[in-house]
Structure formats: C-alpha cells, structure tokens
Amino acid sequence: MTEDPLTIVVGYLATAEGREALETAALEARSRDAELVVVVSAKQTTGDGDVERLRAEIATVADVPGAEGVSHRVVVGGNDVAEDLVSTAEQLSAELIVIGLRRRSPVGKLILGSNAQRILLDAPCPVLAVKPHRP
C-alpha cells in the first residue's frame, strides 16, 4: 500500500505577506518532502480580470527562494480567498495551510482579518500564519 504524498497548501497574493507565505511554505514543503500547492484567487490577484498579469504572478512561484526541487503546482481559485484555501486543503487532505498576515495597528490587533479568521476556524488541518520581515 502506498501512502499519499504530503501536501502543503499556501495562499498567494502579490504582496509582501503573500511572498513571505510562499517562501515559508516552500521551506516547509522541502523539509517535509511534501508537494506545495499554491492557491491563487483570481479576483484577489487580478482585480480587473487581467489574465496576463495573473500568469506572470503564477510564474514567480518557481523563483521563490527554497523552492528549488520542491514539487509544486498552482491552483487558480474563484473569488473567495478563505473558501479557496479551505476547500483545496480539504480536497487534498493537506497537512498544513500557510497564510500571510498583515501587520496591524494596536487597535487592529484586537480584530483579526476576516479571511484569516475564517481560514483558522474552518481549516481541516493546522494553519501556519506568517508576517513579512521588517525592513
């Protein structure tokens, strides 16, 4: 009996938070010998439906530090980032979801972003939340 390969799901947006999540997920995938599944939500990424811009952003996945030799694929989701990540993780029986978080003001820290909160509450597996390094 062969075991299903481990899978790590990461949400990617073309932001500092998205890049940090992608780099962290690639390192996790490498250390766990897991496949990396990058979820790109079409509406969040292109905003205006610019397909060429979306393709260019997806192509950056191969250039992520630490991604060399990591098996990965890109899944283009719909319009809801949280739903895209949770449903992909459920379908693939993912071991881990990696998301990027924005830095918030002291008042903003009292309220977690709605997408992040939905992912944390609805995820079928552990969630690793990362923030970009300060300059």
Per-chain topology:
Blueprint (H helix, E strand, L loop, with lengths): L6 E6 L3 H17 L2 E7 H5 L4 H9 L12 E6 L3 H12 L3 E5 L13 H9 L4 E4 L5
Parallel strand pairs: 1-2, 1-4, 2-3, 4-5
Helix pairs in contact: 4-5
How is this structure best described in words?
The chain has a five-stranded parallel β-sheet, sandwiched between helices. The chain has one domain: 3-Layer(aba) Sandwich (Rossmann fold). It has helices at residues 16-32, 42-46, 51-59, 81-92, 114-122, and strands at residues 7-12, 35-41, 72-77, 96-100, 127-130. It has 135 residues and is α/β, with parallel strands linked by helices. The N and C termini lie far apart (48 Å). The mean pLDDT is 79. Strand 4, helix 5 and strand 5 (127-130) form a beta-alpha-beta unit. The longest helix is centred in the N-terminal third of the chain and has 17 residues, at 16-32.
Question: What would a concise description of this structure say?
Answer:
The chain is of the alpha/beta class. The protein is built from 5 helices and 5 strands.
**Total count of helical runs of at least 4 residues:** 5
CATH class: Alpha Beta
What's the structural domain tally? 1
Fraction of residues in H or I helices: 25-40%
Task: Please tell me the overall pLDDT.
Answer: 79
Strand pairing plus helix content: what structural class?
alpha/beta
Order of strands, main sheet, comes to 3-2-1-4-5
- Classify the fold: give the CATH topology: Rossmann fold
Major beta-sheet overview: 5 strands, parallel
Q: Give the termini distance in whole angstroms.
A: 48 Å
Radius of gyration: 14 Å
Let me know the CATH homologous superfamily: HUPs
| Backbone shape | globular
What string gives the helices and strands in order? EHEHHEHEHE
Strand % is 15-25%
The assigned CATH architecture is 3-Layer(aba) Sandwich
Would you report the number of β strands?
A: 5
Q: Which runs of at least 5 residues are low in confidence (pLDDT < 50)?
A: none
